[in-house]
Design goal:
Strand order of the largest sheet: 5-4-9-1-10
Distance between the termini: 163 Å
Largest sheet: 5 strands, antiparallel
Number of strands: 10
CATH architecture of one domain: 2-Layer Sandwich
Oligomer: single chain
CATH superfamily of one domain: Protein of unknown function DUF881
InterPro entries: DUF881 (IPR010273)
Family: Belongs to the UPF0749 family.
Radius of gyration: 44 Å
CATH topology of one domain: Alpha-Beta Plaits
Strand content: 15-25%
Keywords: Coiled coil, Membrane, Transmembrane, Transmembrane helix
Protein name: Membrane protein
Structural class: alpha+beta
Number of helices: 7
Organism: Micromonospora lutea
Order of helices and strands: HHHHEEEHEEEEEEHHE
């Protein structure tokens, strides 16, 4: 009988893996790759411990130190410049508040002077003419008015999350088109005088936007917005069925805007500022030529500037 050599299949050669027809059997019998076994044997022979983690060479160490130094310098500069920025910001805020106080004081002074002018004018005109003038001023928005009416309140909604992405989004905001629609429908419902946050509307008033700000006659107004209107008793009922009221209620239900309509007694709406009117002027007609005669009359005299014959 011949002796079986170690080169037959199924037997392990020295330093090599034996392969069997059954892959699962081979995997369980020899789970470690020969390369790992050789590396472990080499470490045991040389006495070197296995490396754990990662090592940093000289170049990497220099790069890390340099980055740390740059971060430290940037942080120090940021901290050093923060007091200056805070001081500049506080200075701007103080200037804005000062200008607002000055504007309020001038507005109060202008209102006092206007009342004084009205008193002097009524004294000079007399009873009937002064009453007629007050009626015209009230209808045009140039006079203060009092009476019962309706107040429409609008305010921005709270912030929330996008229904699709789930990201945080800003609050639903009232835009200038909403105020335009509300005021137009209030006029249509019979309003005789309207003011938005104390800004009286006239026939030349504008409601526009400048970025995120809403301007009423080029004056900024901020939320919450209060549209006050003086008018007849059935004005609220007519406004409740208007397009803007129905639309704003749907928007408030869907986006969280605040929209409310209420009756108000004894409203006082201020007068609008005096408008700056521009008048058209006729152009200067050229003077008649002195050498021309009157062809229709046949006389040789030229007409004078007053229309006479001499």
């Amino acid at each position: 009988m011949s002796e079986r050599t170690s080169d037959e299949p199924g037997q392990n050669r020295r330093g090599m893996r034996a392969f069997t027809p059954d892959f699962l059997t081979e995997l369980f019998h020899n789970p470690l790759d020969p390369g790992y076994a050789d590396a472990a044997a080499q470490r045991a022979k040389t006495g070197r411990p296995a490396r754990s983690g990662w090592s940093v060479g000289p170049v990497g160490l220099v790069v890390i130190v340099l980055l740390g130094f740059l971060f430290a310098v940037a942080y120090r500069q940021t901290v050093a410049e923060e007091p200056g920025r805070a001081q500049a910001r506080s200075g701007l805020v103080a200037q804005i508040k000062q200008r607002q106080n000055e504007t309020d004081a001038l507005s109060t002074r202008a209102e006092q002077l206007r009342e004084e002018v009205n008193r002097q004018r009524e004294t000079a005109l007399g009873g009937s003419r002064a009453a007629r003038l007050r009626e015209l001023e009230a209808s045009t928005g140039l006079g203060r008015v009092r009476g019962d009416g309706v107040v429409v309140e609008l305010a921005d909604g709270p912030g929330g999350q996008d229904s699709l992405s789930g990201a945080n989004v800003g609050p639903a905001q009232v835009i200038y088109l909403d105020l335009q629609s509300v005021t137009n429908d209030l006029w249509a419902a019979g309003a005789e005088a309207i003011a938005i946050n104390g800004q009286r509307l006239t026939s030349t008033s504008t409601i526009r936007s400048a970025g995120q700000a809403i301007l009423v006659d080029f004056r900024p107004v901020t939320g919450p917005y209060e549209v006050a209107a003086i008018g007849p008793g059935g004005m609220r009922k007519r406004y409740e069925t208007s397009y803007s009221a129905l639309t704003m209620r749907k928007v408030a239900k869907a986006n969280g805007l605040s929209f409310a309509v209420r009756d108000a007694d004894d409203l006082t709406l201020p007068a609008a500022p005096e408008p700056r009117l521009r008048y058209a002027e006729p152009s200067v007609s050229p003077s008649a030529s002195p050498s021309g005669g009157d062809e229709s009359s046949g006389s040789g005299t030229s007409p004078s500037p007053s229309g006479g014959g001499r």
